[in-house]
Write a structure and sequence with these properties.
single chain, six-stranded mixed sheet, alpha/beta, about 325 residues
Length: about 325
């Protein structure tokens, strides 16, 4: 096939005309698909098994969950959002959106005053009782409860359906799925590394295999040493950590700065992670939120596990 630079001027003009026509057709099709998606009735079953019906795509949306806010920006539908919950701080422009909830507290009056078409709520973050109260007030609610890395792809597609942005949502979902597959292929079959993920020190807490952090650890070829604990965020003891002897100890903090209490592990040099100086800090927001940015945190965690494997190889030499 000849390159445009090798063609005669008339042929070059025809080539560019075809390109312009193709781009115009693509733009037209995207507009047509979005317009149809926006005006068509929507019927979905949310993550708690409740049916949702909208006459058309929502134009005024309240998002109760930082991961939902990150995801709505990822599908280019942030202009539909009229209010969010506290800690919805990414991307930075999300910090200017009005707040109507804090932790597990919801300001129902503020939400009603905004007259939203739809409220999307992180179910685990607020609980079934508060979600039911939103419904009892006559609000249309979609309860979201992604649990695994793969669920983020579906979350993007669902938000696209709900807001009439299926084209951009499907594009973002496909990009996420490809990147997740790349990381899986790169790390999942590596030598297992025992990992202790510490979320707090007093009391000492971790996460079990019901939390998405466990999925990230597994993606990287790691083994969560407290995966089988009953509670999702169980309290554990130093003695239990010593007994399980993790090769890596990871903690997540919002500002990525190493907390002073993390150095207390130096008091127990018998732990392999301490002995090999394999104590790492990650940005918690990029590893605990069910949003596309979680793959940034996953990649960082995977690199830490890779360092542990290299350390073993060097020691073996």
């Amino acid at each position: 096939m000849l390159r445009p630079s090798t063609l005669r001027p008339s042929a070059i003009a025809k080539h560019h005309a075809r390109e312009r026509n193709f781009i115009s057709l693509s733009v037209f099709l995207s507009f047509f698909i979005n317009a149809f998606a926006w005006s068509a009735p929507i019927r979905l079953i949310d993550d708690l098994g409740v049916e949702l019906n909208l006459e058309q795509a929502a134009q005024r949306v309240v998002l109760l969950g930082p991961n939902l806010v990150e995801s709505i920006y990822a599908i280019d539908a942030a202009h539909t959002v009229v209010a969010v919950a506290d800690h919805s701080d990414y991307p930075p422009q999300a910090r200017t959106i009005p707040r109507v909830a804090s932790h597990n507290t919801i300001n129902y009056e503020k939400i009603l005053a905004l007259a939203p078409d739809l409220v999307v709520v992180w179910a685990c973050g607020f609980g079934a009782d508060k979600i039911q109260k939103l419904r009892d007030l006559g609000l249309t609610v979609f309860a979201s409860e992604p649990q695994r890395l793969a669920d983020v792809e579906q979350l993007l597609r669902t938000l696209g359906q709900l807001t009439g942005h299926s084209v951009s949502a499907n594009r973002a979902a496909l990009s996420y799925a490809r990147r997740l597959d790349e990381l899986t292929q790169r790390y999942h079959h590596q030598r297992p590394v025992r990992v202790f993920y510490q979320i707090w020190h007093r009391p000492m807490q971790t996460l079990n295999d019901k939390h998405i952090v466990n999925d990230v650890i597994s993606l990287c070829g790691g083994v969560n040493v407290f995966a089988k604990q009953r509670e999702i965020a169980p309290k554990v003891t130093v003695e239990a950590v010593i007994a399980l002897d993790p090769e890596l100890i990871i903690t997540g903090v919002s500002d990525s700065k190493r907390p002073s209490w993390f150095d207390d592990w130096q008091l127990w040099p018998s732990i392999t992670a301490v002995k090999k100086n394999q104590l790492f800090v990650v940005n918690a927001d990029t590893i605990v939120r069910h949003a596309p940015r979680i793959l940034l945190g996953a990649e960082q965690l995977c690199r830490h596990l890779a360092k542990a494997r290299v350390s073993d190889e060097v020691k073996g030499e």
